[in-house]
Structures are given as C-alpha cells and as structure tokens.
Amino acid sequence: EAGVAQSPRYKIIEKRQSVAFWCNPISGHATLYWYQQILGQGPKLLIQFQNNGVVDDSQLPKDRFSAERLKGVDSTLKIQPAKLEDSAVYLCASRAREQYFGPGTRLTVT
Amino acid sequence: QKEVEQNSGPLSVPEGAIASLNCTYSDRGSQSFFWYRQYSGKSPELIMFIYSNGDKEDGRFTAQLNKASQYVSLLIRDSQPSDSATYLCAVNRGQGGFKTIFGAGTRLFVKA
Hints:
The complex is a heterodimer of chains A (about 110) and B (about 110).
Chain A: E1 5-7, E2 10-13, E3 19-24, E4 31-37, E5 44-50, E6 53-56, E7 65-68, E8 75-79, E9 88-95, E10 99-101, E11 105-109
Parallel strand pairs in A: 2-11
Antiparallel strand pairs in A: 1-3, 3-8, 4-5, 4-9, 5-6, 7-8, 9-10, 9-11
Chain B: E1 4-6, E2 11-14, E3 19-25, E4 32-38, E5 45-50, E6 54-58, E7 61-66, E8 71-76, E9 85-93, E10 99-102, E11 106-111
Parallel strand pairs in B: 2-11
Antiparallel strand pairs in B: 1-3, 3-8, 4-5, 4-9, 6-7, 7-8, 9-10, 9-11
C-alpha cells in the first residue's frame, strides 16, 4: 500500500512570496490533515478535512494560509504572502483509523 | 495546562535497558492514544496505538493506558541505539474522535 505523498520536499522562498504544497493521501482515507511542525515542537494542526469538507481550521492563519481538497482526494496548502515565522516542516497526514504521515515539506523563508 | 504533556527530556538510557516514556492528557473525553517515533529530519512514524485501559504489547514496545488517571506510557524493552529519537504522544478526542492533539515529544538517547 502506497503511503502519503507530498511535494515538494524542500522549498526556499523570500518573505512576501507565495508557496504551495501538495498532498496525496493513502487511497481510501477520508480524513486528511495538514500540520505545521517547528523545530523542537510537536506537530500543530492547521486544517483537517473529512472528504472534501473542512472539519477544523481553527488554527489556520486565514489571512495568509489557505487549503483545499478537491474531490475528496488530493489537497493543496498555500501560503501567501509568506513570513519568516512560517519556516517549518509542513506535514500532511491521512487517516482511516490510525493516522499516517507523509515525508513533509521543509519550508525556509528568508 | 497543555492538552497533551510530555517531559521534553532528553531521557538517556544505556543499551539493553528499559526506556519509559510518559504522557498525560487533559480531556477526559479522549478516545484513542498513539505513540509516534520521529527521527531527526524525518516525519513521525506510528509505532503503537491503544484504545482501551491496560497494556498492549508489540515486540519490544508496550503501551499502557490509564484513563482514570489520564495517563499513557510507552515502554521500550532492550533499548537499542537505533531507538534514539523523539517520541510523540498523540490523543484523539472530539466528536467521532477525529481531532488529534500532539505533545511536544520526549527525546530519547540510548547509549551504546
């Protein structure tokens, strides 16, 4: 069974630029999560989808972050404009009963 | 009070010893509990999950859950240097148990 796929794996941008991340969950997993993990901290939930509906986006900075999950499968997370404090690893995870993570995208904002 | 609390460590144990990692949670409605291992520069990897009070064993790993005390632990027997990593405790709560809250993790070092 293929795992959660994410791209790109690394991204370096300047502040105020925009960036987008892509996630393809494990086949059949209805629940998809985006997390932000800053070095030395646990993953922080940004947004949770159930199929293509948003379940929880309470910690998503909506003035600059957006996410969508078209057709209840793939998802994209966008940051526009990026700030220095957005430098982190962005993790996508999907779940049937247990949650599995993709490899993550390491974002550096300079 | 954080929703999921872990001692940040580092916890240092000699090779072959038992490593004991602890986690407490604040929401009594929490339904399921997970331990993830995260190597430096890698994403979290699920190693154990437990849904009922008591112990659950899988190889060298044992998860222990006490809902009355709101406490979950992970024991690693015969610790190996390859077990050196950060261990994240995660708790599912909320309607349908779909909201997952992570602790900040405990760093474990196993000395050869």
